[in-house]
């Protein structure tokens, strides 16, 4: 038996919004540690990894590890039936083929129960080594979203150059070129507005904007985004979900031929 | 021309 309850459906709705354009199907792994998901997009260029820790739930019961195979589009559609303020319970029997989603209004006057058919999915899982990165940039998530969107008007790729004290995001295309320089904040009152740039060694890498724009669908989950970059390894774009976990995206770089 | 790498180039299947 698996059963968990979150005080606000909003966070799970936003998480589904962050995933559904990138992946069509996925498996939620349920264990005593919480819910987790890892899936590559169909082209095997990017990967999303979600962790929602037990401690962030109101209640969490998992008698036995289970895998819930879901169609993301279906799950997102059902989640949209919840109001943001509703509390939400997810429930599944150990060998069941249904996931129950129960939404309860804050005043307790309305309870909606949906049952979603689960799928038997065999999804490739990749081993992602823990590693130190050459550079880590933290910046307002809305600013990163804006940069990715704006540079998409110029080209298909963004070149990210990190040096001490700042980052250049640049794009080239048939119509022209663009360069956006973001400087590390010297003094900020609000942590959410801060830009921090940690540099162990400067890096310069190129990534497809198409995928970065998919990743920025997670913007409503967190005021800040972190970009971890090292030469010749996938970029990590991470959004922390307060008190609950994270959504992390990995994107393989483009290499000069 | 920049060529898109795949994730299998960096991570292996578990």
Count the DSSP helices of chain A. 4
Radius of gyration of chain A: 20 Å
Residue-averaged pLDDT of chain B: 90
Percent in helix of chain B: under 10%
Could you describe the largest sheet of chain B, including whether it forms a barrel?
none
Count every helix of chain B, treating DSSP H or I runs of 4 or more residues as helices.
0
Number of strands of chain A: 20
Element pattern of chain B in H and E? EE
Oligomeric state of the chains? Answer: heterodimer
Q: Indicate the proportion of strand residues of chain A.
A: over 45%
Question: In one word, what is the shape of chain A?
Answer: globular
| Greatest interface by residues involved | A-B, 24 and 14 residues
Please render the helix and strand layout as text:
The complex is a heterodimer of chains A (257) and B (14).
Chain A: E1 2-6, H1 9-19, E2 25-31, E3 34-40, E4 46-53, E5 59-62, E6 66-71, H2 72-79, E7 87-92, E8 98-104, E9 111-117, E10 126-127, E11 135-140, H3 141-152, E12 157-163, E13 166-173, E14 176-183, E15 196-199, E16 203-208, H4 209-215, E17 224-229, E18 235-241, E19 245-251, E20 254-256
Helix pairs in contact in A: 1-2, 3-4
Chain B: E1 2-4, E2 12-13
Folded structure, characterized:
The complex is a heterodimer of chains A (257) and B (14). By secondary structure, chain A is mainly β. Chain A has helices at 9-19, 72-79, 141-152, 209-215, and strands at 2-6, 25-31, 34-40, 46-53, 59-62, 66-71, 87-92, 98-104, 111-117, 126-127, 135-140, 157-163, 166-173, 176-183, 196-199, 203-208, 224-229, 235-241, 245-251, 254-256. In chain A, the strands form three sheets. In chain A, strands 6-2-3-4-19-18-17-11-15 form a nine-stranded antiparallel β-sheet. In chain A, strands 5-1-7-8-9 form a five-stranded antiparallel β-sheet, with helices on one face. By secondary structure, chain B is an all-beta fold. Chain B is rod-shaped. Chain B has strands spanning 2-4, 12-13. The A-B interface holds A 40, 43-47, 124-129, 157, 206, 208, 233-234, 250, 252-257 and B 1-14. Strand 10 (126-127) of chain A pairs antiparallel with strand 2 of chain B.
């Amino acid at each position: 038996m698996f059963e968990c309850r979150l005080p606000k459906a909003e966070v799970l709705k936003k998480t589904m919004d962050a995933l559904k354009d990138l992946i069509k199907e996925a498996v939620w792994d349920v264990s005593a540690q919480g819910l987790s998901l890892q899936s590559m997009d169909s082209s095997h260029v990017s990967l999303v990894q979600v962790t929602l820790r037990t401690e962030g739930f109101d209640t969490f019961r998992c008698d036995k590890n289970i895998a819930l195979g879901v169609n993301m589009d279906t799950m997102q559609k059902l989640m949209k039936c919840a109001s943001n303020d509703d509390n939400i319970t997810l429930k599944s029997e150990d060998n069941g083929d249904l996931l129950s989603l129960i939404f309860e209004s804050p005043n307790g006057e309305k309870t909606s129960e949906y049952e979603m058919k689960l799928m038997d999915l065999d999804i490739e899982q990749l081993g992602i080594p823990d590693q130190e990165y050459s550079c880590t940039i933290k910046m307002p998530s809305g600013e990163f979203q804006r940069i990715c969107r704006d540079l998409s008007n110029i080209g298909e790729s963004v070149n990210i150059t990190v040096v001490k004290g700042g980052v250049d995001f640049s794009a080239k295309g048939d119509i022209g070129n663009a360069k956006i320089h973001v400087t590390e904040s010297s003094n900020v009152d609000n942590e959410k507005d801060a830009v921090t740039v940690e540099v162990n060694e400067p890096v310069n890498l190129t990534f497809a904007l198409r995928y970065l724009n998919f990743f920025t669908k997670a913007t409503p989950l967190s005021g800040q985004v972190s970009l971890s970059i090292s030469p010749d390894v996938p970029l990590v774009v991470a959004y922390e979900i307060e008190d609950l976990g994270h959504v992390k995206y990995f994107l393989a770089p483009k290499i000069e031929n | 021309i920049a060529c898109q790498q795949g994730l299998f180039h960096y991570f292996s299947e578990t």
